[in-house]
């Protein structure tokens, strides 16, 4: 599905300029490509993470493998959901409770709607009141 060609711009003898690599679209205009359209193999070649440009066969083989892995992950996830539902139904596992967090227990206003302007004191601790802008 990707029609790309890679090119190397080699430096002239005697110059110390690194090799430049670029890819040109064969079937589409360059502006039609979006991020993620280039196969990872081409990205690796452009960034000099690999020596040779990828072959069409390699790209197709890797795409096929990625699709196969996506399907396996999906299958395992669905199987796990069914197993969890069965375990909940049989009472083997408690269903997760839906807790509503209302602040951190160490906060001086835990369980209250909002911080108080009034200072608070409990035993040996003192918490000054929250500053509120005038007006």
UniProtKB/TrEMBL annotation:
Stated name of the protein: NDUF2 factor
Transmembrane stretches, start-end: none
Domain of life: Eukaryota
Stored InterPro entries: ComplexI_NDUFA12 (IPR052618), NDUFA12 (IPR007763)
Any one GO biological process: mitochondrial respiratory chain complex I assembly
Species this chain originates from: Zonotrichia albicollis (White-throated sparrow)
Similarity section: Belongs to the complex I NDUFA12 subunit family.
Region entry Disordered, spans: 90-135
Residue ranges with Polar residues bias: 117-127
Any one GO cellular component localisation term in the record: mitochondrion
Pfam hit, one: NDUFA12
